[in-house]
Amino acid sequence: MADQPLEGQIAIVTGGARGLGHATAARLERDGARVAVFDLDGEPPVDVTDEARVREAVSAVLAEHGRVDILVNNVGVYPHRPFEELTFEEWRRVLATNLDSVFLCTHAVFPAMRERRYGRIVNVSSATFLIGFPEMTAYIASKGAIIGFTRSLAHEAGEHGITINAIAPGLIATESVVGGEEAELLDIYIREQSIHRNGQPEDIAECVAYLVSPAAGFITGQTVNVDGGHRFL
After folding, report:
1. Looking at 78, 118, 139, 189, which residue is catalytic?
2. Rounded Cα distance, 84 and 96, in Å
3. What DSSP designation does 97 have?
4. According to DSSP H, which parts of the chain are helical?
5. CATH class of the domain whose range is 10-223
């Protein structure tokens, strides 16, 4: 494979200001892609739950570069809340951020990819879908739906030269995990995993980089579990 297999390609990464998204954006840039980050903390800010703002941001990328080759739907929130304490307002916020954003961003870039008969879309799900982790009902519901979305749309997209895959990260040592409620789980997961170390954002970025590369043109509709062998699909 060429040193820069994505040279000349244009990518959009949602939630790319930090964590998995930041590592992914940096990895794609090293492979030669020009990366636009859609994030509330980005410049300019992009609210990926706002249809008008998403379409405006995608239009700006197309106006500047004339194409979108890659979309990584990474943005996500994961509040911990016992089910009986979970409000409908919070449920809707989680699904809007984690799931509606996948629809909105994919729907906005799809026509341009179809016209060029080329596209790579990667949706970030979660290995928690395989576990049913407690007190994360809204989060896991949204991440399971992403897998269904990926499988269904892959059938429609294939004839247009567009591949769509999902990644299910395990517990990854991002800043928010290390400084949050999941920190105490890191040592437990290391013992349970087949690979006995913390997962790093770069581990996810490497998988994304392969799935969006020209080399992955015969892979679509799949969910790749990247969790050090904690669970097996």
Report:
1. 139
2. 20
3. I
4. 19-30, 51-65, 88-95, 101-116, 137-157, 175-178, 186-192, 201-211
5. alpha beta
Q: Residue 119: which of 8, 26, 10 has the closest Cα?
A: 10
What is the Cα–Cα distance from 205 to 63, expressed in whole angstroms? 27
The two three-digit tokens of residue 203, written as one number: 């581990």
Q: Do 116 and 68 meet the contact criterion of CB atoms below 8 Å apart?
A: no
- pLDDT digits 0-9 by tens, 63-99: 999 999 999 999 999 889 999 999 999 999 999 999 9
**pLDDT tens by residue, 127-169:** 999 999 899 999 999 999 999 999 999 999 999 999 999 999 9
Structure confidence by residue, pLDDT tens digits, 15-42: 999 999 999 999 999 999 999 999 999 7
The question of whether 139 is a catalytic residue gets the answer yes
Report the DSSP beta bridge partners of residue 176.
none
How many Cβ atoms sit within 10 Å of the Cβ of residue 226?
19
Give the pairing type, strands 223-226 and 162-169: parallel
Residue type at position 152: S
